[in-house]
Amino acid sequence: MSVSDQVTSPIQICVIYHSSYGHTAKVAQYIAQGAAQAGAEAHLISVAAVQWELLDQADIIVMGCPTYMGSLTAALKQFMEDSSKRWLARAWQGKMAAGFTNGGGLSGDKLAVLQQINLFAMQHGMLWAGLPFMPTGRSPQDINRMSSFLGLMTQSDNASVEVTPPEGDLETARKFGAYLVRLKAKNSVSI
Known about the structure:
By secondary structure, the protein is of the alpha/beta class. Helix content is 37%, strand content 17%.
């Protein structure tokens, strides 16, 4: 079979998240939108209705939740614990992983949440992709305004999901989704 005879299917990306008030779900939607714009088949999955088969088939799994008291939400932690059979079988080993979190504070110890998601991915033998974008400033319109590199950090004011997170955070999320797809495509090899 020649290279030209090979059929390539689109990259599969799953964005699995927990969101109590809709702000984190909005960030997840923008990540998936960016991935789809880059040519991937993107799936949004709430931890309230986990679709294990989609996660098992995914090339990239992006996980996120709000930062509550400097930690993961109980719902995302439950998802992690429920994945133990896949951990034992090494079912996700070699898949690309990334993380994101949203919170009310500019810091709020969001880094701790990304570290917890990162450690979970490493336990599964996944390959971690961070956020590569240099901060462009600190205003709500700027890219990566929180200067995060381990994963995506966004911030929501205590307001309706229609007005927050700000546009710069959402654009960072969109760019992050597209970046993950391009990174996966660049690093895909066939054996």
